[in-house]
Write a structure and sequence with these properties.
Distance between the termini: 39 Å
Mean pLDDT: 90
Strand content: 5-15%
Number of helices: 13
Low-confidence stretches: 3-28
Length: 325
Amino acid sequence: MRAEDAMKGLTLCGLTLFTFTGLGSAPAVLAWGCKGHQTVALIAEKQMTPEAKQMVQALLAGNPIDPALKRYCGDTVRDAVADASTWPDDIRGQAKNGPWHYIDIPRGAKRAPLSNFCGKDGCVTRAIEDELATLKNKNGDAGKRAEALRYIIHFVGDLHQPLHATTNDDEGGNCVPVNYFRRKARQHDHGYSPNLHGLWDTGIPERDMEGADPAEYAETLGEIFAGQIESWQKAGIHIEDWAWESHEYGEKTVYGELKPKIAIEPPVEVQGCTDDNNIGDRLLRQHITAGAAYQEKAAQVVEERVAKAGVRLAMILNEAAKTVR
């Protein structure tokens, strides 16, 4: 399980910055970074029914985010849904919600009920279900329902990041040092930079965005996948399937396309990169590389995962709006 509350990761302007609060801490996990989460939210808005938009806008406007809260992605986002998409990372430390952002399915695991992989402190699939129940409760506290909405917007994005459903005793890829184009992997305090998780959160998506802001990227992805959106919608809401879908991409592309190949580790509980016989240092000495060929294949996965996350988020909110009357 990742020691997420020990360190706060900030993703600003395409750079991943880390501040440590204690020795031996492991990197926090912020799927897709600021721009990725905002893109998911903007795609979702285009697919929401008028009923869902009304519910979402009423909850967010009537129960605004505390203006005193430090927003790691900044406070310049004008769109309320995009702004809400990053809030769960802002309160990660005080809410101690770190485990809710991922589910640790080990590499090589055979498909089984997700409860087998959900830790004692929760996981992303259980969190989505719990927060959805709160959102649908029309007699519930409006503030709690607004918080549940923000969590759902964020967690559906998290679920579609392959490394939020895959681990190899490596903190979801945080302990995998990777040489990325001209950047050479090196040890940084108690972690590594660049690392595999950071590449999938920000490096690969933002290189693919080519300087576009989330609104432009959302428009581009909408055009690329216009012919597939209807089929995604017709497939219905299947959160467990979505988790295994992410895990399969983790196996096939995230780890499968790296050079050299990384062996599947026997599953053990880890709290940092020095566990599992110092996995971080062992991998650093393998000189793992992700260059242009890796970027091209990974970007295709990122584009589909972000687009699907947005469409599926809208599906969940559209359904929720039907039951809240």
